[in-house]
Design brief:
Largest sheet: 8 strands, mixed
Strand order of the largest sheet: 1-2-8-7-6-3-4-5
CATH topology of one domain: Endonuclease, Chain A
Strand content: 15-25%
Structural class: alpha+beta
CATH class of one domain: Alpha Beta
Helix content: 10-25%
Length: about 250
Protein backbone atom coordinates (compact mmCIF):
# COMPACT_ATOMS: atom_id res chain seq x y z
CA UNK A 1 0.00 0.00 0.00
CA UNK A 2 1.40 3.35 -1.02
CA UNK A 3 0.95 5.73 1.93
CA UNK A 4 2.38 8.73 0.04
CA UNK A 5 0.10 9.96 -2.70
CA UNK A 6 -0.09 13.21 -4.64
CA UNK A 7 -2.55 15.66 -3.15
CA UNK A 8 -4.46 16.02 -6.40
CA UNK A 9 -5.56 13.41 -8.91
CA UNK A 10 -4.46 13.00 -12.53
CA UNK A 11 -1.12 12.44 -14.20
CA UNK A 12 1.55 14.17 -12.11
CA UNK A 13 3.68 14.63 -15.27
CA UNK A 14 0.94 16.40 -17.25
CA UNK A 15 1.15 20.21 -17.37
CA UNK A 16 -1.26 21.85 -14.98
CA UNK A 17 -3.78 24.31 -16.37
CA UNK A 18 -3.65 27.82 -14.96
CA UNK A 19 -6.35 28.52 -12.44
CA UNK A 20 -7.53 31.69 -10.78
CA UNK A 21 -6.29 32.00 -7.19
CA UNK A 22 -8.87 31.27 -4.55
CA UNK A 23 -8.85 32.60 -0.99
CA UNK A 24 -7.54 30.18 1.59
CA UNK A 25 -10.13 28.44 3.75
CA UNK A 26 -10.42 29.56 7.33
CA UNK A 27 -8.42 27.33 9.69
CA UNK A 28 -10.39 24.91 11.84
CA UNK A 29 -9.63 26.39 15.22
CA UNK A 30 -11.43 26.66 18.52
CA UNK A 31 -11.91 30.25 19.78
CA UNK A 32 -10.21 30.88 23.09
CA UNK A 33 -12.44 32.18 25.91
CA UNK A 34 -11.30 35.33 27.64
CA UNK A 35 -11.59 33.66 31.03
CA UNK A 36 -12.22 30.14 32.33
CA UNK A 37 -15.73 31.27 33.36
CA UNK A 38 -16.65 32.76 29.99
CA UNK A 39 -20.34 31.95 29.55
CA UNK A 40 -20.10 32.56 25.80
CA UNK A 41 -18.13 29.35 25.42
CA UNK A 42 -20.31 26.50 24.08
CA UNK A 43 -21.03 23.56 26.34
CA UNK A 44 -18.40 20.80 26.03
CA UNK A 45 -21.22 18.32 25.38
CA UNK A 46 -22.62 20.25 22.41
CA UNK A 47 -21.01 20.55 19.00
CA UNK A 48 -21.03 24.24 18.03
CA UNK A 49 -22.39 23.77 14.53
CA UNK A 50 -22.50 21.44 11.58
CA UNK A 51 -19.63 19.94 9.60
CA UNK A 52 -19.20 23.18 7.64
CA UNK A 53 -18.65 25.24 10.77
CA UNK A 54 -14.88 26.03 10.88
CA UNK A 55 -14.99 25.73 14.68
CA UNK A 56 -16.55 22.27 14.63
CA UNK A 57 -13.92 19.46 14.76
CA UNK A 58 -15.76 16.88 12.69
CA UNK A 59 -12.76 15.47 10.85
CA UNK A 60 -11.49 12.03 11.81
CA UNK A 61 -8.85 12.33 14.49
CA UNK A 62 -9.77 15.91 15.47
CA UNK A 63 -10.94 16.95 18.91
CA UNK A 64 -10.36 19.71 21.40
CA UNK A 65 -11.62 17.72 24.41
CA UNK A 66 -10.33 14.92 26.60
CA UNK A 67 -11.58 11.36 26.17
CA UNK A 68 -11.96 10.49 29.86
CA UNK A 69 -14.74 7.87 29.83
CA UNK A 70 -16.27 5.28 27.48
CA UNK A 71 -19.15 6.74 25.53
CA UNK A 72 -18.37 10.32 26.51
CA UNK A 73 -19.09 13.10 24.03
CA UNK A 74 -15.50 14.13 23.44
CA UNK A 75 -16.30 17.40 21.68
CA UNK A 76 -16.53 15.80 18.27
CA UNK A 77 -13.72 13.21 18.43
CA UNK A 78 -14.08 10.87 15.48
CA UNK A 79 -12.11 7.63 15.60
CA UNK A 80 -10.16 7.47 12.34
CA UNK A 81 -10.21 4.22 10.34
CA UNK A 82 -7.18 1.94 10.72
CA UNK A 83 -4.37 2.12 8.19
CA UNK A 84 -3.14 -1.14 6.64
CA UNK A 85 0.50 -1.41 5.58
CA UNK A 86 1.87 -3.48 2.72
CA UNK A 87 2.86 -6.35 5.05
CA UNK A 88 -0.64 -6.63 6.49
CA UNK A 89 0.05 -4.67 9.67
CA UNK A 90 -2.88 -2.53 10.83
CA UNK A 91 -2.31 0.77 12.64
CA UNK A 92 -4.97 2.42 14.78
CA UNK A 93 -4.88 5.86 16.41
CA UNK A 94 -6.12 6.01 20.00
CA UNK A 95 -6.88 9.08 22.09
CA UNK A 96 -6.47 9.51 25.85
CA UNK A 97 -8.02 6.78 28.02
CA UNK A 98 -9.19 4.60 25.16
CA UNK A 99 -5.52 3.79 24.48
CA UNK A 100 -5.02 2.34 27.97
CA UNK A 101 -8.34 0.53 27.65
CA UNK A 102 -7.15 -1.13 24.43
CA UNK A 103 -3.90 -2.10 26.17
CA UNK A 104 -5.80 -3.49 29.16
CA UNK A 105 -8.02 -5.63 26.96
CA UNK A 106 -5.05 -6.88 24.92
CA UNK A 107 -3.31 -7.96 28.13
CA UNK A 108 -6.51 -9.62 29.36
CA UNK A 109 -6.62 -11.69 26.14
CA UNK A 110 -2.89 -12.56 26.18
CA UNK A 111 -1.86 -16.21 25.95
CA UNK A 112 1.95 -16.39 25.88
CA UNK A 113 4.02 -13.28 26.58
CA UNK A 114 3.56 -9.60 27.44
CA UNK A 115 6.32 -6.97 27.47
CA UNK A 116 5.40 -3.64 29.08
CA UNK A 117 7.57 -0.53 29.43
CA UNK A 118 6.38 2.65 31.13
CA UNK A 119 7.85 5.76 32.70
CA UNK A 120 5.11 5.94 35.35
CA UNK A 121 3.39 2.94 36.91
CA UNK A 122 1.17 4.78 39.38
CA UNK A 123 -0.10 3.41 42.68
CA UNK A 124 -3.65 4.66 42.05
CA UNK A 125 -6.80 2.80 41.04
CA UNK A 126 -5.70 2.44 37.42
CA UNK A 127 -2.20 1.25 38.37
CA UNK A 128 -3.59 -1.29 40.82
CA UNK A 129 -6.07 -2.55 38.21
CA UNK A 130 -3.18 -3.17 35.81
CA UNK A 131 -1.12 -4.78 38.59
CA UNK A 132 -3.99 -7.12 39.51
CA UNK A 133 -4.51 -8.08 35.88
CA UNK A 134 -0.79 -8.78 35.34
CA UNK A 135 -0.67 -10.89 38.50
CA UNK A 136 -3.75 -12.87 37.50
CA UNK A 137 -2.49 -13.57 33.99
CA UNK A 138 1.00 -14.47 35.29
CA UNK A 139 -0.58 -17.09 37.55
CA UNK A 140 -2.30 -18.50 34.46
CA UNK A 141 1.11 -19.04 32.85
CA UNK A 142 1.55 -15.92 30.71
CA UNK A 143 5.12 -14.61 30.83
CA UNK A 144 5.36 -10.94 31.83
CA UNK A 145 8.33 -8.59 31.51
CA UNK A 146 7.79 -5.11 32.99
CA UNK A 147 10.30 -2.26 32.86
CA UNK A 148 9.45 0.88 34.85
CA UNK A 149 11.42 4.04 35.53
CA UNK A 150 12.77 4.46 39.05
CA UNK A 151 12.07 8.20 39.18
CA UNK A 152 8.74 8.21 37.34
CA UNK A 153 7.39 5.33 39.46
CA UNK A 154 9.14 6.39 42.67
CA UNK A 155 5.90 6.99 44.54
CA UNK A 156 4.42 3.66 43.47
CA UNK A 157 7.44 1.64 44.52
CA UNK A 158 8.31 3.38 47.78
CA UNK A 159 4.78 4.21 48.93
CA UNK A 160 3.14 0.94 48.00
CA UNK A 161 5.63 -1.92 48.00
CA UNK A 162 2.76 -4.38 48.10
CA UNK A 163 1.70 -3.65 44.52
CA UNK A 164 5.11 -4.37 42.99
CA UNK A 165 5.94 -7.18 45.39
CA UNK A 166 2.56 -8.75 44.68
CA UNK A 167 3.28 -8.77 40.96
CA UNK A 168 6.73 -10.27 41.58
CA UNK A 169 5.29 -13.01 43.80
CA UNK A 170 2.81 -13.85 41.04
CA UNK A 171 5.61 -14.38 38.54
CA UNK A 172 5.80 -10.99 36.83
CA UNK A 173 9.42 -10.19 35.98
CA UNK A 174 10.03 -6.59 37.07
CA UNK A 175 13.04 -4.43 36.30
CA UNK A 176 13.68 -0.92 37.65
CA UNK A 177 15.35 1.45 35.20
CA UNK A 178 18.30 3.37 36.73
CA UNK A 179 17.50 3.22 40.46
CA UNK A 180 17.44 6.58 42.24
CA UNK A 181 19.47 5.24 45.15
CA UNK A 182 23.13 4.97 44.09
CA UNK A 183 23.81 1.83 46.11
CA UNK A 184 21.05 0.00 44.21
CA UNK A 185 22.66 0.60 40.81
CA UNK A 186 24.33 -2.32 39.13
CA UNK A 187 26.39 -0.06 36.89
CA UNK A 188 27.16 3.69 37.01
CA UNK A 189 24.69 6.06 38.70
CA UNK A 190 23.05 8.37 36.15
CA UNK A 191 20.10 10.02 37.93
CA UNK A 192 19.06 12.26 35.02
CA UNK A 193 19.06 9.43 32.47
CA UNK A 194 15.42 8.37 32.57
CA UNK A 195 13.24 5.98 30.58
CA UNK A 196 10.31 7.87 29.05
CA UNK A 197 9.35 5.12 26.62
CA UNK A 198 5.82 3.71 26.80
CA UNK A 199 5.51 0.48 24.84
CA UNK A 200 3.55 -2.74 24.93
CA UNK A 201 3.96 -6.01 22.99
CA UNK A 202 1.44 -8.84 23.40
CA UNK A 203 1.99 -12.33 21.98
CA UNK A 204 4.07 -10.96 19.07
CA UNK A 205 0.82 -9.96 17.39
CA UNK A 206 -0.41 -6.81 19.16
CA UNK A 207 1.67 -3.80 20.18
CA UNK A 208 1.22 -0.21 21.21
CA UNK A 209 3.33 2.88 21.72
CA UNK A 210 2.59 6.49 22.55
CA UNK A 211 2.65 9.03 25.34
CA UNK A 212 0.39 7.49 27.97
CA UNK A 213 1.68 6.22 31.30
CA UNK A 214 -0.14 3.75 33.54
CA UNK A 215 -2.16 6.06 35.77
CA UNK A 216 -5.60 7.55 36.42
CA UNK A 217 -4.69 10.96 34.99
CA UNK A 218 -4.20 9.22 31.63
CA UNK A 219 -6.96 6.59 31.82
CA UNK A 220 -9.82 8.66 33.23
CA UNK A 221 -12.63 6.16 33.77
CA UNK A 222 -11.70 3.87 30.90
CA UNK A 223 -10.16 1.25 33.22
CA UNK A 224 -11.81 1.93 36.56
CA UNK A 225 -13.49 4.99 38.02
CA UNK A 226 -10.95 6.86 40.20
CA UNK A 227 -12.03 6.59 43.83
CA UNK A 228 -10.37 9.86 44.83
CA UNK A 229 -10.99 11.77 41.63
CA UNK A 230 -8.32 13.30 39.40
CA UNK A 231 -7.53 17.02 39.38
CA UNK A 232 -6.16 17.31 35.86
CA UNK A 233 -6.32 14.80 33.02
CA UNK A 234 -3.51 14.46 30.53
CA UNK A 235 -4.24 14.82 26.82
CA UNK A 236 -2.26 12.26 24.82
CA UNK A 237 -2.30 9.76 21.98
CA UNK A 238 -1.07 6.27 21.20
CA UNK A 239 -0.81 4.00 18.17
CA UNK A 240 -2.05 0.43 18.20
CA UNK A 241 -0.20 -2.07 16.03
CA UNK A 242 -1.63 -5.42 14.99
CA UNK A 243 0.14 -7.86 12.71
CA UNK A 244 3.70 -8.63 11.55
CA UNK A 245 5.17 -5.32 12.78
CA UNK A 246 4.37 -6.34 16.38
CA UNK A 247 6.80 -9.25 16.33
CA UNK A 248 9.87 -8.95 18.57
Amino acid sequence: MDLVRPRFGGDRDAPAAAAAPTPAAAPRTQPEPKTCDDDSRPSPRVSPGGPNDPHSPKEAGASRGINIAPGSDDDGWVVPPPVELSDGTRLQLFKDGEALHAAFEAIRASKKRVCLESYIFAHDDTGRAFADLLSTKAKEGVKFYVLYDSFGSFGAFHSNHGMFHGMARSGVRLQEFHPIRPWECRYSWRPVNRDHRKMLVVDDHIAGLGGLNVGAEYAGSWIVKPSKGVCDFWRDNAIGVRGPAARL
